[in-house]
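Researcher: Please generate the 3D structure of the following complex. Treat every line as part of one assembly.
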Amino acid sequence: MKTIYDKSRPSRRGVTFPAPLLPDACFQEACLSPELLRASPAQLPEMAEIDVVRHFTNLSRQNFGVDVGPYPLGSCTMKYNPKFTEEIARLPGFAGLHPLLPQLRRGGLLAQGALEVLHEMEQLLCAITGMAAYTMQPLAGAHGELTGLMLMAAYHRHRGNQKSLVLVPDSAHGTNPASAAIAGYTVRTVPSKDGVMDLEAYRAMLGPEVAGVMMTNPNTLGLFEPDIKQISEAAHAVDALMYYDGANLNAILGIAKPADLGFDIVHLNLHKTFATPHGGGGPGSGPVGVVAKLDEYLPISRVARREDGTLFLDYDRPHSIGYVAPFYGNFGVVLKAYAYILALGGPGLKRVAMDAVLAANYLRARLAPQWRVAVDRMCMHEVVLSAADQAAQHGVTAMDVAKALIDFGFHPPTVYFPLVVKEAIMIEPTETESKENLDAIVEAMAFIAKKAQDDPDWLHAAPRSTPVGRLDEVRAARQPDLAQR
Amino acid sequence: MDFSPHTDDDRAQMLGAMGLSSVDELFAGIPPELRVRQWDLPRPMSELEVTKRLGRLAERNAHGLTCFLGAGFYDHFIPAAVDALIRRSELYTVYTPYQPEISQGTLQAIYEYQSAICRLTGLYASNASLYDGGTALFEAAMLAVRRTGRKRLVICRAVNPIYRVMLASYTANLHLELVEEDLAGGGCAADLLDDKTAALIMQNPDFFGRVHNYADAFAKAHEMGALAILCCNPLALGVLRTPAEMDADIAVGEGQPLGLPLSFGGPYLGFMAVSEALLRLMPGRVVGRTLDGQGREGYCLTLQTREQHIRREKATSNICTNQALCAVAALIYLSLLGKEGLRELAQLNMAQAAYARQRLTAIPGVRLMDPGPWFNEFRLELPLDARVAVSRLIDKGIAAGFPLGRYYPEQANALLVAVTEKRSKEEIGNLAEALEAVL
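Model: Done. Output below.
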C-alpha cells in the first residue's frame, strides 16, 4: 500500500483552526529571530480528512486483531477486550483531566473521582495478589520490572546490604535480565530441569551477594513451579527478595496469591490479565505491588486518605525511590482494568483462571497425538509444543507452522520462546476462546502435522492469504530503511 | 459479568476429552498449602452498574475548568477523526507486530510515524515510541553513557523538573553523576561541561516557555566529546529550529500535544530520534521497510539484536511494550494537520499566548519575568504567592496556571501560564479580570 507521504498533494488540508487573536504578532522577525526558526516546514503529508480516514481504515484492514479471530499468542494473554471499558476511559471527567490539578493548593479535591479509582484499584490488586501496597505508576510490564528492581536496590541500600547479583531462570522473559542490568545488577542464569527451576543448581548459586530472584509462576513453559516455597525461603535466608513477573497471573487468579508463594515484589500486566487492549505494542500498564516491609520505598506520589475521608497525594515519603513516571501511570489503561475487575468480581476472576487453564489443557490433550509437548504433564494457562521432530525429519520449522496457521484464520502462537525449548510453539488460548475455536485450532494443527510429512514445501510457502509473504528480514537489518525521506 | 463463552456443557466435554471430571483436578500441581485461603473481592457487576459507578466517579473530577495549566502537558484540540480511527479494533486489539504478514497495518503506520518524527526533528532515525517524555529522556541519557563510556550528565535547570526528578530516581543505583546547570540570564550557559561529561541535556521551549537556539552550547558539548540531547515540544517544531539544525545528537520529548487527551497523566507518548551514528545504540522497537519473496514492499520489526528478547542483559534497553497506539494517534493527528497546518497551529499558539501576555501584564502588580521570545507559555510574577492566586481562581472556574514555587522554591510568586489554540478571547479576558480581582 502507498505510504501517506506518497498520497500527499500540496495544499490539501484535513483540519482548520480559528483565526489568531493577534494576527502576525509573534512569528515575525521582531519576535522570533531567524536563528530560532526552522529553515523549512516539516514535510508532513497534505491530505483531506477523507484521505486520512481511508488511509488508516485500509491500513487497519491489514491487521489481525482479537476482534478478528483467535489470537493464541503465548505469554501475551490476548483475551477479548470488552468494549464498555473503552467508553469509560473516554468520559470527559477522566479523559479531560489535567494531571497537575492535584498539585495545586486544595487541588486534590478537584480530582477525587480519579484518586478514588487509583485507591480502589490498589486495594483490589492487593486482594488479588496478597501484597500490602501497590503503585500504579509503571507504564508497562518491563517498566514495572525496572521499578521493582529499583525498590529492591533501595531496600538493600537502606539496610546496608552489599549485593550485586540477581538470579533469573533460563526460561525467563528477556525483559527480566535486561531490567536487572539497567537497574545496575549483574545477572546470573539459573538452569531449568524438567521445565522448572533446578532447585539444586539454584541453591548452589545462592549467596549473600544475591539481591533478588526473578521468577514467573506459572513459568513460561506454562508450568507451576512446585518448589516455589523452598525457593523463596532459601532466598529470604540470605536476605534476597523474591520478584514475581506477573505475565502469567491469569492462570492463578483466585487459585493462589504471589504473596503466599513467598514473593516480595510483584508486577502485573494490566494489558494481559485484566483485558486492556494492547494497541499494536502499547500502551500497557505495569502496576507494582510490595509486601509491607517495602512500602516505604514505593514511588511518589502515593494516594492516601485523610481523616475526613477525602483522598490526597502524599509526597512526603523520605525513603521513596522517587518518580518513575511523571504522574500516576497510564491512567486511561488503569481505568479500563478497574472497570473489568469490577465487572467480573471475585467469582468472575476465579472463573477466568479455571477456564484459561481448562482451555490450555484441552489443547494439550488434543494436540499431543501429533505434536511433541515440551514437558508432557498437566499445564496451566499455556502449553508449549516443540516442532523439533518435524524440523529434523521434514525440515518444517516452528516458523513454518506459525505461517501456515495464518492461512487457517488464526494468529500464530509465540514461536522460538521460551529459549529452553527447541522449535518452541507456545500456545495460550485464554478463557475467551470458545470450544469450537479450540477445536478449529486442533484441526488446523493436525492438518499441518500431516502436511509436514507429505508436502513440506506447501508449508514453506505459507502464508498465501496475506497482503505480503514472508519478508526479507536480513535485508531489513542490513540496509535499514527506517523512514521515508 | 464475565466474558467467557464456555457453557457448563462445553466444560464437561473438554474435561471428558482429558478423562477428568472436575476443573479442580487441573490445579493438582499447586500444593494445597499454597492455595488461596481468602478471596475478598467484590461481587460481579453488570456492564450497566459499572458504567454508572464510573460515570459518578468521573463527575467528581473538575474537568470543566478553563485550562491555562500546561507545564509540559497541554489542553489542545483533538480533531474527531483521530479517535474515530484509533477506535478501529483492528488497530487497538493487536499485540506487538511479531508476525508481519498479518500486521502490515500497524507496521506501516509505525514506519510512517518514524518518518514523521524524523521530518519534525531533522534527525536520521526514530524508534517506534517510548513510554513518555521523561522515560525517553532517561533512555537518551543512558544511550550517551553507553556511547561515551562516561558517567557524568549535565542537565539544565530549565528542563522540566518532573523529568529531572525522574532522571535522579533512575540513576540512583547506577553510580552516575547528575549535575544541574543553574539558570543564568536567559537560560543555561553550558558552563559545567568537562571531558568526563557524557551528555548535555537542554529543553526547547524550556520549562518557562522560552525559545532558544542551543547551537553554541551543543558545539561546546561536542568539543568536550559529549553528546547533545534536546528535549522538545513536537508541536513547537512546527516553527522552531530543529534539533538537527542545532546539531543535537538525540531529540526526545513528550508527544501528548500531538492529539492525545490529558487523561490524568497517560497514556502519553515518548518520542526519540537520533543521528545516524547512534542508530544501533537506540533503545526500543524499530520498523523497517523491506521486500517479500515476490519483491513486494512490506514492513517488519528490525535491528532486533539491540533488544531484550535477543540480547537479554546486554540489550540497549529493557523496553518491550511501548505506546504504539499513541504513536499512531499522533501520526493521524499530524496527517490531518499536514505541513501547513502544523506550522499554522504552532503560530496560532504563539499568537494566543501573546494576546494573553498583553492582557495579563496590563494588570497592576503583574510582571512578565522574561524578555522572551516564547512559544505558548510564559511566567508571570504576581504580587502574592502564586499558589494562593491559583486556588482563588479555581473557585471561579479557571485553572490559571502552574505555581512554580513547587519546583523552584525561590519563585514562590511565579505563575506559569499556558495558552493553547483552545483558549478564546473571552476566556483570556475572564482570566485577566478574575486575576485582577483576586490580587
